[in-house]
Amino acid sequence: MKLLVTGGAGFIGSMFVRRRMAARPDEKLIVLDALTYAGNLASLAQVKGFEFVHGDICDQPLVERTLAEHQIDAIVHFAAESHVDRSILGPMAFARTNLMGTATLLECARRGGVKRFLHISTDEVYGDLGPNDAPFSEQTPIAPRSPYSASKAGSDHLVRAYFETYGFPTLITRCSNNYGPYQFPEKFIPHMILNALSDTPLPIYGDGQNIRDWIHVEDHCAAVERVLEAGRPGEVYNIGGRAERPNLEIARAILEALGKPESLLKFVTDRLGHDRRYAIDDRKIERELGWSCARRLDEGLAATVKWYQTNDEWCRQVRSGEYRKWVTLNYDNRDGT
Ligand code: NAD
Ligand code: DAU
After folding, report:
1. CA 245 to ligand 1 centroid distance, Å
2. What is the phi/psi pair of residue 6, to 5°?
3. Is 255 domain-assigned?
4. Cβ(123) to ligand 2 under 6 A?
5. How far is the CA of 262 from the centre of ligand 1 (A)?
6. Residue 6: Cβ within 10 Å count
């Protein structure tokens, strides 16, 4: 199979590429990534054998060329603007990449005869839950509440429409909150770990009782591989970690793991429209594809804390912005512009 992975330099996409190339070193794999602030080729530094195309999924001629040149059979589409806080400050980039980018990719892929299109979506498209509500199932109505989740929901609708209208073989996964190595520290868990390591206050939004369902990024990627292999076109598969926790509990566990005092916790103004609780019913993927989450949250979190402690060079470059200079030197100036 000749595989195109969009967003392969991001947090989850890079884990997918690392795993895939380790298991199938002879497979032809192309990463297409715009290297926005969230893309970091250092996350792929140890991986050999893939090809990298620096480009934007909204750039139709480039996408067409890439699909044709490499005779792509299947696409795993991770590329997105992914951070809710940024979507509140600047929603247009989310509409552009998540909606227009996905539309461009779908259209090029359909015309280019791609045989499988796996769209990586999120549980946030379902909206939020009260404390006693049943977890989101694949039948839960779509009801996004942030510009990020609305743009992802829009992209899900486009993907579904391509299946219904053209019979184009699309699949959708909707996963809960990921954590693990190489996650950009704007996200909750790495943000808490790095602040704790530098004795900087840990900002807890609102009352800290918002609940997320946490899954290790390797478990998510294992599920994505199962869906790519054996999922039924036209279907949606929820993926979850079966580990619902209030944010405050996670922050406290991180402080404890690092031997830091609770006085570092700092309650701050809440996120606008902050979703209260996410929970996932992932019985469909377990029943149909035999996937279930392998890692326990306490073990995965301990390993993640250790990773950020021991990979201080990756963290230093990300925090200082030095990783961007490297991108600029290697790619932005390639043609002398
Ligand atoms: P990320 O922000 O870490 O990475 C996104 C990647 O996409 C980056 O490498 C970036 O350079 C690239 N990109 C952004 N805009 C692009 C464009 N216009 N053209 C080409 N490349 C572009 O995101 P992530 O956390 O790895 O999430 C990956 C996917 O998984 C997203 O679609 C996200 O919605 C979904 N998801 C994330 C989570 C989570 O907890 N992080 C959970 C469920 C689903
Ligand atoms: O559920 C899947 C989604 O999970 C993905 O689709 C998104 O791409 C991903 O960013 C994530 O969204 P969240 O908004 O849940 O993740 P975030 O890490 O931004 O925040 C997790 C929780 O922690 C949320 O309740 C807000 C809170 N928070 C976050 C930050 C960054 C804080 O209390 N303090 C913080 O500094």
Report:
1. 23
2. -85, 145
3. no
4. yes
5. 32
6. 28
In total, the chain counts a number of residues equal to: 337
Cβ contacts of 65-68, under 8 Å, gap ≥ 24: 66/4, 66/30, 66/32, 67/4, 67/108, 67/109, 67/112, 67/114, 68/112
Give residue 290's domain range: 2-182+216-242+277-295+321-330
Give domain status of residue 191, yes or no: no
Q: Which residues contact 8 (CB under 8 A, 6 or more apart)?
A: 14, 16, 17, 31, 32, 33, 44, 50, 52, 78
Q: Give the span between the Cα atoms of 298 and 176, in whole angstroms.
A: 17
> What is the DSSP pairing of strand 170-175 with strand 116-122?
parallel
Predicted structure pTM score: 0.97
Distance CA 284, CA 134 (A): 15
What CATH number corresponds to the domain at position 143? Answer: 3.40.50.720
Q: What is the C-alpha to C-alpha distance for residues 186 and 190, in angstroms, rounded to an integer?
A: 7
Structural domains in the chain (count)? 1
Q: Other C-beta atoms within 10 Å of 20: how many?
A: 23
Q: What is the CA radius of gyration of the chain?
A: 19
Mean pLDDT per 10-residue segment, the chain (337 residues): 97 98 96 96 93 97 98 98 98 98 98 98 98 98 98 98 98 98 97 97 98 98 98 98 98 98 98 98 98 98 98 92 79 50
Most informative mutation of 5, 15, 36 for ligand 1 (most atoms within 8 A of CB): 36
Q: Which of 236, 213, 209, 210 is nearest to 223 (CA)?
A: 236
In testing the pocket of ligand 2, which one of 85, 151, 175, 187 has its CB within 8 Å of the most ligand atoms? 187
CA 192 to chain centre: 19
